[in-house]
Design goal:
The complex is a heterotrimer of chains A (271), B (314) and C (423). By secondary structure, chain A is mainly alpha-helical. Chain A has one domain: MetI-like fold (Orthogonal Bundle). Chain A is 74% helix and 1% strand. Chain A is built from twelve helices and two strands; from the N terminus they run αααααααααααββα. Chain A has a two-stranded antiparallel sheet with strand order 1-2. The longest helix of chain A has 34 residues, at 60-93. The radius of gyration of chain A is 23 Å and the shape is globular. Chain B has one domain (58-65, 90-313): Orthogonal Bundle (MetI-like fold), CATH 1.10.3720.10. Helices cover 74% and strands 1% of the residues of chain B. Chain B is built from 15 helices and two strands. A two-stranded antiparallel ribbon of chain B has the order 1-2. In chain B, helix 5 (86-114) packs parallel to helix 9, helix 5 (86-114) packs antiparallel against helix 12 (232-248) and helix 6 (120-134) crosses helix 9. Chain C has two domains: 3-157 and 303-374, Periplasmic binding protein-like II (D-Maltodextrin-Binding Protein, domain 2); 159-300 and 381-422, Periplasmic binding protein-like II (D-Maltodextrin-Binding Protein, domain 2, 3-Layer(aba) Sandwich). Helix content of chain C is 49%, strand content 15%. Chain C is built from 18 helices and 14 strands. In chain C, the strands form four sheets. Chain C has a six-stranded mixed beta sheet. A four-stranded mixed beta sheet of chain C has the order 8-9-7-10. Classes of the chains: A mainly alpha (271), B mainly alpha (314), C alpha/beta (423). Chains A and B meet through helix 1, helix 3, helix 4, helix 5 and helix 6 of A and helix 1, helix 2, helix 3, helix 5 and helix 6 of B.
C-alpha cells in the first residue's frame, strides 16, 4: 500500500491516540499504585510504584484460568465460524422470504439481553448434564456470537464477484467445492477479521462462565476479573493489574491476525 | 471500479426464472448452507427467545420463576407505562442510541480512513484501540468514571486551562449524565467500527486510487466517490449492529451511574435489568426487554428492505 | 458430487476437531468438579459446599478460618465457592430451578425474602427449635419469611459516623452527638478547606440503607409512610449539598468510594460501616475515630450483614447445619469475626467478649445497636416487596442529592409508590 497520511489524518490520529491512550495510561498507572494512592488527587502521577497487585495476581490460578480462556475462546471461535461462514454465504447468495426472515431473526437474536438467556440455557444444560463443563460455556458463547458473526460476514461474501463462481461452476465444480476453493479464499479478509473479533469477544465473556461453571476452579480469566468487583468494594490496583495481564493475550492474537491481514492484502489478488 | 460495475450487467442479462435447470437448482440448494446455523441457533437461541417472550406476557416473580407462569397478556407492558417508568425510559433510550450511533459510525469511518495508511503509528494505534475495545466494560467504565469525576483528568485540564470555573458535573447532573454515558459507549464501539470499516476499505483495489489520483481527484472526492460507495454494504450492517449495541447497552450505565442520578440514565435495557434482577419482577423486566426487541424489529424490517433494494440494484 | 462430498467431509472434520479439542479441554480443566453430575458434588459426599461473595482479603481470611475450624472439628471437608455478588442471586435461582445448589449459602441478609420465595433456602425451624444456643440470638438477626425461619446472621454490620480526628482538632470541635453539632462541624470543616461528609447516594438498596438513619430521624417510617417527614429528611441532606458540605458526586458512589475518599484525608466525616475497619487501618494516615450517628429519638440504623442458610437442594443438610453451628453460630466462631473483618458478633455472649468491648472503634457500633438498631429489612414490608421498596427509596434519595427532583417532589412520588407496595 502506498497511502500517505494527510494533515487531517495526522490530526485524527493524534486525537485518537489521546482518547485511547489516556485510559490505558490510567489503567497502567493504577495497576502499580498502592490502594491508598488511588483516590489521592495529589498522587495522580507522582507516587511510589508498587508491584503488589501483579505479585498477588500472578499465581497458579492465573495460569489455569489462562488455559481455560484459551480453550473456551478457541473452541467458541471455531464453532462460530463453522456455523456462521456457511450461513453468511447462504444468506448472501439466496433470496426469497426464508433468507429475509433469517436475517431479521438474527438481528432480533442480537438484541436478546444476555442476562435473559442465562436461566433458559441453564435449564437446557442441566437437562443435558452439561453443567460445570467447558462444553456448556462454549456452546452458549457460540450461540451468543454466531448471529453477530453471520451478520458481519455476509457483506464480505456479497463482495465476492459472482462471475468467479460461475466460472468455477462452468468448470464443473459443485457448489460446495466452489464455495470451499473459490469463494472462501476470496473472502478470507472478512473471515480473518470476524474470526479475530469473535475470539476477542469470547475471551471477554464472563456471564456464562460464572453461571455455568459451578466451581470457580474452572473459571476463565474474564471471570477472575469479574471477581475483583464485590459487594464490599473494588480492589482498584488488583482490577487494573489483572485487566492488563488478561489483555496481553488479546494483543498477541490481534498482532498475529493484523500481520495476516496485511500480508493477505499485499498479495492483492482480490479481483 | 471494475468489479462492481461488471457485476450489474451480468445480473441483468439473466432473466428471472430461467428454464435452465442448473442455475435454478443452485439458487435453491444454497439454502443448505443455512442448515447448521438454523439447527444450532434453533437449539440454543430460539428457546431462550421464546422463553423471554412468554415471560413478558406472564406474571413471573422470584417465587414463580421455577413454577408455572400465569399468562397475563399485555398486562406487564401496561403496568410498565402506568408506573411512569417506561415512557421516559423510551425517550432516554432514543437520545442515547442516537448519540452512540452517530458518534460510533462517523468517528469509526473517519478513523478507518485515517488508519488506512501503512506504518507503525497506524498499526500501534489500531492495536491500542482494539485492546481498549476488548477490555471488559467494568474496566473501561470504571476508568472513565475516574477520568470524568470532579478531581478527574478531564476536569483538571478544563479547570487548569481556565475553560471552566467549576468542574463539569459529567456523571451526577441529570442532563450531562446521559450524554457522558452515551459518549463512553460510543468510545467503546468505535474501535470495532473502525476495524470493520478498515477491512472493507482494504478490499478496494489500490489501482482505483491510483487512477483517481492521476485524474486529479482530491482526498475528499476519493472519500466521497470511492470509499463511501464501496463500504456501503458494510455500513448497512455496521449501522444495524451499532444501533442494536446502543439499544441493548447496559453495562456502562451499571458501572458509571447505576441509572442515576435518581432515574436520569434509566434506559430501557437498564430498566429491564432493574425490574428483573433487582426487583425480581421477571415478567415486567422481560416485557421491557421485549419492548426493546420490538423496537429492533422495526430495524430488522428496514434492513431486510434495503437488502432487497441492494439485490435489485445488483 | 465427489467434490461436494470432499468439502462436506472437510467441514465436518473441522467441526469434529473443534469439538474434540473442547471436550479434551473439559477433562483437562475439570479437576475437582465432577462433570457428570449436575450438582455441586454427589450425595452426602462429606463435602460442605459454601457459596459466598467475598473477595476482600480479610473476608476471605474469615472464610478460610471457618473452613479450618470446621475441618478440625469434624472429618468433613469444606469447599468455599466464590460467586461474584452481582451473579449470586441469579446463579442460586437458576441452580434451584435445575434442582441443585450449594449446601450453605452466605448471602446479603436483606435478600433473604427473595431467596426464600425462590426456593433457594431450606427452612430452619426444626433445627432452630433444637438448637441449645438459640436464645443467645436477638430477633433482628433471624430472617423469617411468612413465619418460617430461613437464615440466621452470625454477625451484624451497621453504619456509624467516622471522623477525622486531625481535622476536628484543627477546627476545634468534639465528635458530634446531635444533628446541630454535626452541621456546625461540617460548616467549620468547609471553612477550613475540607469536605464535610461522604456517603453513598447510589439509586439502589445501598442508597436506601444509607438514607434510612436520616429519614427516620426526621420522623419517617414504613409503618405509616409520611411524605412530609420523608421530605424533611431529604431536605436536610440536600441542604448539605447546597452548603457544599457534601458533594453531589455522591450519587455515583457505592459505599466503598466515599470511604476511600474519607481515607484520603480531606473530609471531616464519613457515614460508613464497621466493615471498613481494615481499610481505615491500611489506607488512612491520620488519627480517626467512630461515633454513633447523631440521631434523635426516632432515628434508626439498620442492622445488616450476611445471612447464612442451608441450600434447599443441599446434598447433605445435616452436615451443612453442623458447619453453621461450628462456625457462624458458635461462640468461638463468632469471636473470629471482629478481629478479621470488624463485624459485631450477633450472639449476646460473643458481643460482650473482650474482642468487641475492648475495641475503641467497635464499641460505638455496639452502642448504636443498643440505641438505634433496627431490623433490616423492616419487618412491616411484605417479603415480596422488599427489593422494590429499597429501589424506590434509593432512587428518590439519589434524585434529591443529584438535584433531579426537589425533596418534596421526590418524597411525594416515593410515598405514592410505597403505598402500592406496602399494601
Amino acid at each position: 500500500m502506498t497511502v500517505k497520511a494527510g494533515p487531517l489524518a495526522v490530526a485524527a490520529k493524534i486525537l485518537l491516540t489521546l482518547v485511547y491512550g489516556v485510559p490505558i495510561l490510567w489503567i497502567l498507572l493504577t495497576s502499580v499504585k498502592s490502594s491508598d494512592d488511588v483516590f489521592d488527587a495529589d498522587r495522580t502521577f507522582l507516587f511510589r510504584p508498587v508491584t503488589t497487585a501483579y505479585v498477588e495476581a500472578l499465581d497458579g490460578d492465573l495460569l489455569r484460568a489462562l488455559l481455560q480462556s484459551v480453550t473456551i475462546a478457541t473452541c467458541a471461535t471455531a464453532l462460530v465460524l463453522v456455523i456462521a461462514i456457511p450461513a453468511a454465504y447462504g444468506l448472501a447468495r439466496t433470496r426469497g422470504p426464508l433468507p429475509t426472515l433469517g436475517l431479521g431473526l438474527l438481528i432480533v437474536l442480537q438484541m436478546m439481553p444476555q442476562t435473559a438467556t442465562v436461566i433458559p440455557l441453564f435449564q437446557v444444560f442441566s437437562g443435558w448434564r452439561l453443567l460445570d463443563t467447558t462444553a456448556a460455556v462454549v456452546l452458549a458463547d457460540a450461540a451468543l456470537l454466531a448471529p453477530f458473526a453471520t451478520l458481519l460476514l455476509r457483506p464480505f461474501f456479497r463482495a465476492v464477484p459472482p462471475q468467479i463462481e460461475e466460472a468455477s461452476s462452468i468448470d464443473g465444480a459443485g457448489i460446495f467445492r466452489t464455495f470451499w476453493s473459490v469463494v472462501l479464499p476470496v473472502a478470507r479478509n472478512g473471515v480473518a477479521t470476524v474470526g479475530t473479533l469473535t475470539f476477542l469477544l469470547a475471551w471477554g465473556e464472563f456471564l456464562y462462565a460464572v453461571n455455568f461453571y459451578l466451581t470457580p476452579g474452572q473459571y476463565p480469566l474474564s471471570a477472575l476479573l469479574a471477581q475483583q468487583v464485590s459487594a464490599f468494594g473494588i480492589n482498584w490496583p488488583g482490577l487494573m493489574a489483572l485487566a492488563v495481564l488478561t489483555s496481553i493475550p488479546i494483543l498477541v492474537v490481534f498482532s498475529a491476525s493484523y500481520r495476516l491481514l496485511r500480508d493477505g492484502l499485499t498479495v492483492g489478488a482480490v479481483k | 471500479m471494475t468489479a462492481p460495475a461488471t457485476a450489474a450487467p451480468a445480473r441483468q442479462a439473466r432473466p428471472r426464472r430461467t428454464p435452465t435447470a442448473p442455475r435454478r437448482r443452485r439458487g435453491g440448494s444454497r439454502l443448505v448452507f443455512l442448515l447448521p446455523a438454523a439447527l444450532f441457533l434453533g437449539l440454543f437461541s430460539i428457546y431462550p427467545l421464546v422463553q423471554l417472550l412468554r415471560m413478558a406476557a406472564s406474571e413471573v416473580t422470584a417465587a414463580t420463576l421455577n413454577a408455572d407462569w400465569a399468562w397475563t397478556g399485555l398486562d406487564n407492558v401496561r403496568r410498565g407505562f402506568e408506573t411512569g417508568q417506561t415512557g421516559p425510559a423510551v425517550s432516554r433510550t432514543l437520545v442515547f442510541v442516537v448519540v452512540v450511533t452517530v458518534l460510533g459510525m462517523l468517528v469509526g469511518f473517519g478513523a478507518a480512513i485515517a488508519l488506512r495508511t501503512s506504518g507503525r503509528w497506524s498499526a500501534w494505534l489500531l492495536a491500542l484501540m482494539v485492546f481498549v475495545w476488548a477490555l471488559p466494560p467494568v474496566v473501561n467504565g470504571s476508568v472513565w468514571k475516574f477520568l470524568l469525576n470532579d478531581a478527574g483528568l478531564i476536569n483538571t485540564v478544563l479547570l487548569g486551562t481556565g475553560l471552566r470555573d467549576d468542574p463539569v458535573p459529567f456523571l451526577y447532573d441529570q442532563h450531562w449524565a446521559l450524554f457522558a454515558v452515551a459518549f463512553v459507549n460510543a468510545f467503546a464501539v468505535i474501535p470495532f467500527n473502525t476495524l470493520v470499516f478498515r477491512a472493507a476499505l482494504m478490499t478496494i483495489d489500490p489501482e482505483v486510487f491510483e487512477a483517481a489520483q492521476l485524474d486529479g481527484a482530491s482526498k475528499w472526492q476519493q472519500v466521497r466517490h470511492i470509499m463511501v460507495p464501496s463500504v456501503r454494504p458494510t455500513t448497512l450492517v455496521l449501522l444495524i449492529l451499532t444501533l442494536v449495541y446502543g439499544f441493548r447497552s447496559f453495562d456502562f450505565i451499571y458501572v458509571m451511574t447505576y441509572g442515576g442520578p435518581g432515574t436520569a440514565t434509566n434506559t430501557l435495557p437498564f430498566l429491564g435489568y432493574l425490574q428483573a434482577f433487582v426487583r425480581y419482577d421477571y415478567g415486567l423486566g422481560a416485557a421491557t426487554s421485549a419492548l426493546a426487541v420490538v423496537g429492533v424489529l422495526v430495524l430488522a424490517v428496514v434492513y431486510a428492505r434495503s437488502i432487497k433494494r441492494e439485490e435489485a440494484d445488483g | 458430487m465427489n467434490a461436494r462430498r470432499t468439502s462436506l467431509i472437510a467441514l465436518a472434520a473441522v467441526g469434529a476437531l473443534g469439538l474434540a479439542a473442547c471436550s479434551g479441554g473439559t477433562s483437562a480443566g475439570g479437576g475437582g468438579g465432577d462433570g457428570s453430575t449436575a450438582g455441586g458434588g454427589g450425595e452426602g459426599d462429606g463435602v460442605v459446599t459454601v457459596w459466598h461473595y467475598f473477595s476482600d482479603p480479610n473476608q476471605v481470611a474469615l472464610m478460610d478460618a471457618y473452613q479450618e475450624k470446621f475441618e478440625a472439628d469434624s472429618d468433613a471437608t469444606v469447599e468455599n465457592v466464590y460467586v461474584p455478588y452481582d451473579q449470586m442471586n441469579a446463579k442460586l435461582v437458576s441452580a434451584a430451578g435445575a434442582g441443585t445448589g450449594p449446601d450453605v449459602v452466605v448471602f446479603n441478609g436483606a435478600e433473604a425474602a427473595t431467596l426464600a420465595l425462590a426456593d433457594v433456602l431450606a427452612p430452619l425451624d426444626d433445627r432452630w427449635a433444637d438448637f441449645a444456643d438459640a436464645d443467645q440470638f436477638p430477633d433482628s438477626v433471624l430472617h423469617s419469611v411468612d413465619d418460617t425461619l430461613y437464615a440466621v446472621q452470625g454477625y451484624v454490620n451497621l453504619l456509624g459516623l467516622w471522623y477525622n480526628q486531625d481535622i476536628l482538632d484543627e477546627i476545634g470541635v468534639e465528635p458530634p452527638t446531635t444533628m446541630d453539632e454535626l452541621e456546625d462541624a461540617m460548616a467549620a470543616a468547609k471553612d477550613a478547606g475540607y469536605g464535610g461528609i461522604t456517603l453513598s447516594g447510589l439509586p439502589q438498596s445501598q442508597g436506601e440503607w444509607q438514607a434510612y438513619p436520616w429519614i427516620t430521624d426526621a420522623g419517617f417510617d414504613y409503618e405509616e409512610p409520611d411524605a412530609d417527614a420523608l421530605a424533611a429528611g431529604f431536605e436536610r441532606v440536600r441542604g448539605w449539598v447546597d452548603n457544599g458540605w457534601l458533594t453531589q458526586e455522591a450519587v455515583t458512589w457505592d459505599q466503598t468510594v466515599p470511604f476511600q475518599q474519607f481515607a484520603a484525608g480531606n473530609t471531616a466525616f464519613a457515614q460508613n460501616g464497621n466493615w471498613q475497619l481494615g481499610t481505615a487501618e491500611s489506607d488512612a494516615d491520620f488519627a480517626y475515630g467512630v461515633a454513633p450517628l447523631p440521631l434523635g429519638d426516632t432515628g434508626q440504623v439498620y442492622l445488616g450483614g450476611e445471612g447464612q442458610g442451608i441450600g434447599a437442594h443441599a446434598d447433605d443438610p445435616d452436615l451443612a447445619w453442623e458447619y453453621l453451628t461450628s462456625t457462624y453460630l458458635d461462640v468461638e466462631g463468632q469471636e473470629l469475626a471482629p478481629d478479621l473483618v470488624g463485624s459485631i458478633p450477633s450472639r449476646a455472649d460473643s458481643a460482650e467478649a473482650d474482642v468487641v468491648t475492648g475495641n475503641d472503634l467497635l464499641d460505638p457500633f455496639a452502642q448504636s445497636i443498643a440505641d438505634f438498631g433496627a431490623s433490616y429489612p423492616d419487618p412491616v414490608i411484605p417479603p415480596a416487596a422488599v427489593a422494590d421498596v429499597q429501589l424506590t427509596v434509593g432512587q428518590a434519595w439519589s434524585a434529591v442529592i443529584g438535584g433531579q427532583k426537589s425533596p418534596q417532589d421526590a418524597a411525594d412520588e416515593a410515598v405514592a409508590a410505597l403505598s402500592g407496595l406496602l399494601g
